[in-house]
Amino acid sequence: LKELYTILIDPVKDEIKDAEQLVIIPNKSLHFLPFQALIDSSDSYLVNDYNITYEPSLSVHHLKKKEESTDKTAFFGVALSDVAVGLNIGLPGTEDELKNILPHFTNKLSSFGEESTETFVKENIGNYNYIHLATHGIFNFHQPVYSFLLFPPNETDDGRLTVHEVMGLKLNSRLVTLSACETGLGYLDRGDEIVGLSRSFLYAGSSAVIVSLWSVAD
Is the pLDDT of residue 217 over 60? Predict the structure, then answer.
């Protein structure tokens, strides 16, 4: 991490020294590097000095900057809770997570456990500005468009909200948080675009997405 800091940050250190926010537009394998974790010569992480966000491309960055900001604070959240789905264990910590977030909003809709179905998500997600999905994230290395977020299945849906399905949603959200494993992974195509869950939510209409590159405990 120190070596990567020397290669990637030191050459532009003077240009960014007075900035508070860094918007990083990665290239190729750098899409999978967490710049926040880079360490300088004094053993300080880059995230200690800057608020760091990423954009798929410069054109997307300019497009998002032009979008009208909104003060709406409608919140939508679901948590798998302690419900096991197939071979995927329950995640009791997700319920605590969502319950700690809900008091910060007055206009809100949420569901837990068996009620947090894919159908419930699809029918309601487009009406809210802040979206929080706490469940399992499964990355499909062979067919990235079939990577998915997992919910309890029902007679309407199989419980797998795939990249392909997300691209068909219509969102008007300021922030989508994918509180699940490996939601930042994807397939890097020839155009230096990542095909995965993070990009699918941007394409669906969210201004920003929080994702994880790793497997994490609930």
Answer: yes
